[in-house]
Specification:
179 residues; alpha/beta; Rossmann fold; seven-stranded mixed beta sheet; three-stranded mixed beta sheet; 6 helices
Length: 179
């Protein structure tokens, strides 16, 4: 399965990038790190700078057709930057149009709000996104992980880093690595 992780050049929550990435690599998967700019991305451990990670591809050089699964890590600044980049929003929307699975954690659903893909869907996120999700037509719930298959694709969401074990298990289940 070809997996894309989409992040902004700065602001991704490091553990929300590295934990699902590591879970997928245990299955033999080689995820690709996509961003809106080439070079590297600066991750954060909450408000402190973390590690940098090399960008494999920029979002203007790929489409949803190139991948089977999209993972959207959180961090406050990361999805806020992505939702202002039309190419990133179009890339995300392309997964929904193609009926491909998407996984988003913490603040990442902000990008889904901007993409206009939440109508009639149930999901979770960091609690401060509740109003944005509701205004976008989604139903927000406070659960560790939510799997919504209401629509052409499966949407997996979680609230925060403490939910990563449940989030990763659902992603692995989606790719057929767990039952």
């Amino acid at each position: 399965m070809r997996t894309a992780f989409l992040v902004a050049p700065e602001g991704v929550e490091q553990i929300e990038l590295t934990s699902p990435w590591q879970a997928l690599t245990t299955t033999g998967e080689t995820p690709q790190l996509l961003s809106t700019a080439p070079g590297s991305v600066q991750a954060f451990n909450h408000l402190d700078k973390g590690d940098t990670f090399p960008v494999d591809l920029t979002v203007d050089r790929v489409s949803a057709d190139d991948f089977d699964l999209l993972v959207l890590p959180g961090g406050v600044a990361n999805p806020d930057a992505l939702r202002t980049d039309e190419r990133a929003v179009d890339f995300v929307r392309g997964f929904f149009d193609a009926g491909k699975p998407v996984a988003a954690i913490c603040h990442a659903p902000w990008t889904l709000v901007e993409a206009g893909v939440l109508q009639g869907r149930t999901l979770t996120s960091w609690p401060s996104l509740r109003t944005d999700i509701t205004n976008a037509g989604g139903s927000w719930v406070d659960e560790k992980v939510v799997v919504c298959a209401n629509g052409p694709n499966t949407l997996i969401t979680s609230r925060k880093p403490a939910d990563l074990d449940a989030f990763n298990k659902r992603i692995l289940h989606e790719v057929g690595a767990m039952t």
